[in-house]
């Protein structure tokens, strides 16, 4: 069971790589078409001229380095300490599934309240994952 969290970790890394691919597929053609100067590229506000799908792909890629970082720390720490459990594995998979839904919403129709709802639920799952791992650690 000690490496059972590796599946969700690999899935989250895979999601991040997919978002990177989406970013390149959308942003590179948009940048080529816009022909921004170096000064424009350094000013994030001026990049608002890019089409929404290109901006959303970049925003979602950045989101993969926010809450998921805590997920990685928890999962890797739990594996190293031998604290993986059926519950932590289940919560990890739920978290990754919610991140997939969050990404799908963000890079398609991008309804903010839908995305925010999934974000809140995934945050609750992440807190629960923390609680399970922490209780196992302190309960030893």
What does this structure look like?
With 140 residues, the chain is mainly α. It has a single domain, classed as Four Helix Bundle (Hemerythrin (Met), subunit A) (Up-down Bundle). The chain contains six helices and no strands. The chain has helices at residues 6-34, 38-42, 52-63, 67-81, 86-107, 112-139. The relative contact order is 0.16.
Overall strand count: 0
Helix content: over 70%
Give unreliable regions as ranges. none
Rg measurement, Å: 18 Å
In CATH's first tier, which class applies? Mainly Alpha
Give the second-level CATH assignment, the architecture. Answer: Up-down Bundle
Number of helices: 6
Number of domains: 1
Key words describing this protein structure:
140 residues, mainly alpha, Four Helix Bundle (Hemerythrin (Met), subunit A), 6 helices, 79% helix, 0% strand, elongated
Please sum up the structure shown.
This protein is mainly alpha-helical.
Protein topology:
Layout lengths: L5 H29 L3 H5 L9 H12 L3 H15 L4 H22 L4 H28 L1
């Amino acid at each position: 069971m000690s490496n059972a969290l590796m599946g969700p970790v690999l899935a989250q890394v895979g999601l991040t790589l997919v978002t990177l691919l989406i970013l390149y597929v959308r942003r590179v053609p948009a940048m080529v078409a816009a022909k921004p100067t170096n000064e424009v590229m350094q000013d994030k506000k001026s990049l608002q001229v890019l089409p929404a799908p290109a901006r959303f792909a970049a925003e979602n890629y950045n989101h993969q380095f926010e809450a998921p970082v805590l997920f990685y720390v928890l999962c890797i720490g739990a594996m190293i300490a031998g604290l993986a459990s059926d519950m932590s594995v289940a919560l990890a998979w739920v978290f990754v599934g919610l991140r997939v839904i969050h990404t799908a919403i963000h890079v398609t129709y991008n309804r903010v309240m839908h995305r925010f709802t999934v974000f809140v639920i995934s945050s609750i799952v992440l807190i629960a994952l923390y609680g399970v791992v922490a209780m196992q650690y302190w309960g030893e």
